[in-house]
Amino acid sequence: MRRARMTKAAALLLAGSLALAACASDEEPTAGGNGGGDGGSDDLQVGLAYDVGGRGDQSFNDSAYAGVEAAIAALGGEVQEFSPNDDGSDRVEGLANLAEAGYDPVIGVGFAYADTIAEVAEEFPDTTFAVVDASVADSGLENATGLLFAEEQGSFLAGVAAALKSETGHVGFVGGVEMPLIQKFEAGFTAGAKAVDPDIQVDVEYISPAGDFTGFGDPARGQILARSMYDAGADIVFHAAGGSGSGVFQAAADTGNRAIGVDSDQYQTVDDPALQAVIMTSMLKRVDNAVEAFITDYSEGNVQGGIDILNDLESDGVGLATSGGQIDDIQQQIEDYRQRIISGEITVPTTP
Description:
Elements: H1 8-15, E1 45-49, H2 60-75, E2 78-82, H3 91-100, E3 106-109, H4 114-123, E4 129-132, E5 144-149, H5 151-165, E6 170-177, H6 180-196, E7 201-208, H7 219-231, E8 236-240, H8 245-255, E9 258-263, H9 266-269, H10 273-276, E10 279-285, H11 287-299, E11 307-311, E12 318-320, H12 331-343
Parallel strand pairs: 1-2, 1-3, 3-4, 4-5, 5-11, 6-7, 6-8, 8-9, 9-10
Antiparallel strand pairs: 10-12
Helix pairs in contact: 1-3, 2-11, 3-4, 5-6, 5-12, 7-8
C-alpha cells in the first residue's frame, strides 16, 4: 500500500501528468511488484528516465536505451521513456508518473537521479527502481538498486592507449562537468598515460563547473577546448562530456589529430565518416549490459534491493573498443595493464 500522506511526488502527480515519450502501447501496463516479476515476460513494462539530453546523445543515454532494447528483444514487453527538461527540475514528476502508470521496473539514468530515486521509491514501495551512477547502499530503500561503474579503470586503459599511440608526448582530457564522477575519468586517464610515460603532458579542461550540467550538451564549447589542446601540441584528446564529445571529434578532424570517445563505441555511433575516422578508441562504460542484466534479473524475480552492483574491468563493465583497428597493434600492452589492475597490482586513483 502506498503511503497516505501527501509527498512532493504525490503533489506533482495531482498537479497533472507529464507527457511521456510515446514508445509504449496504449494498453495499461501491469506492475511487476517489488523484487521483480513472476517470470512472465508478457507483462514486462519498463520505465526509462534519461539524463539531460535524452536519447540521441550517441553516448550515455543511448547506451542505456540499448540495454532496455536488448532486454525487451529477449524477454518481450515495452518501454516508456522520459526526458527531463534542461534544468532537470521535473525529474521527480517524471519518475512518479512512470511509477503511477504502472511501469515496473523504473530506471533513472545518471547520478542526478540519486535524490529523486530516494524520494519516489519511498512513495512507491511496490515498484522496483534502479539508478545508474548513484549508490543506494546506505539509503535504506529495499526497492532500489544502484548500478555503479569503475570508470577510472576503463579510463586508465584509455590513458595507456593514448600514451602508447601519441607521437608528441602530449595528450588531453575534456570533461563535461567538473564534478567527482567525471573526475574519476580524468584521474584514471592521467594515471594510465603516466604509467606508460611518466613525462607525458596531460592537459585537462572542463566545459562547465560543478552544478552546471550544460557541459554535457555543448559541442561548440567542447570543440573550442579540444582545439586549443591540439593547437598547443596534443595529438590525442579523451572526452567524458556526453553530447559535447562531438565537438571534440570535430576539433580532431579539423586539425588532423585523433580522439577517444566514451561510454558507447562511438566509432560505431557517429554519423559522419570524417568524425568516425578520428576516433582511435572509446572507453566503454557498459551501461547497456548493466541495464539489460538488471531487467533480466527483475523478470526472473532475482533483484536484490538496497544494494549497489559494481561494473568493473573484471566483470567487463568497462573497457576499450577496438572498432576501426587503430589500437590493434597495442592490444597486448593494454591487456597486460588490464590484468595488473584486476589482480590488484595496480590501484587506479579515483580523484585527480
